[in-house]
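A further point concerns the way the authors explain their paired sequence and structure data. Each protein is reduced to its one-letter sequence and a matching series of backbone shape codes. An entry of this sort, consisting of the sequence and the corresponding backbone structure tokens, reads as follows:
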Amino acid sequence: MISQNSAYVLVVDDEGPNRYSVSKTLQRVGYMVNEAASGEEALEHINAQEFDVVLTDIRMPGIDGVELLRRIKEHSPDAIVILMTGYASLGTAVEALRLGAHDYLIKPSSSGDIRQSVSRGVERSHNLKRRRRLLDTIKSDVFELTRADRDAANAALDTALPTDLEEHTYSEILPDINSSSMQLGPLTVHTGRYQISVDDKPIDLTPTEFDLLLYLAAHRGRVVPCHELVREVRGYTVDEAEAREVIRPHVSNLRRKLKDAGQEEDLIVNVRGIGYRLNEQMVGV
């Protein structure tokens, strides 16, 4: 389970009793809670500190909850924002979801509903942060490979090509680590969405399948135990036997999707009794 002691929540409500009640509800189960009495004050907190979840009332003077959501998402698209309102309307709910709200609670909400919504939000926040770390690791690996390729290309071009050749003539063939996709053997991994492609044929993945592939890519060259995959991809801890049962169907689904796309050779190798690794021959480890 997600550790609540490591989760920071910002509660935003212009009504003091409501703000106090929600904050205490969350503090009792271990969340680190800050409070803001307005949208303006909330933005000051957000500029000073990173929060896993922002839980905000909608109806407030000045910057209301929907406008606060919009501003937060402009600067942090992955931010988890939960809206609360005592004046529910379909239009407001649709607009909140369109802007990327994680959840929409109707006041008065029970303590259980608030905790459950925040718990899901914290789990989502931690999963997004975990995914960013995986992408950073993979991009770092690509950068090192790119630098080596670039050095080799420069050395070859210094002796084989005219001195007035523009650099972009050869740099265009090297990987771009800032692009929205990266190559993993025969696969193109689209980092901005849960999708890969084989020979330009797109394959939609679930978040777990996508994160599983990314984690194995970030740790290619070694066998990753199942309990580690569950901990890093799913966000909770189980023993190895249970972890194998958790991971196996995700691996099977991923293999099936790759096979349906024409990728006959297994990208993910099962090392019996130990875990999984990427096929070195396919990804060039």
Observations:
- Confidence is low (pLDDT under 50) at residues 159-179.
- The chain has two domains: 4-127, 132-283.
- Residues 255 and 266 are 7 Å apart (CA to CA).
- The two ends are 33 Å apart (CA to CA).
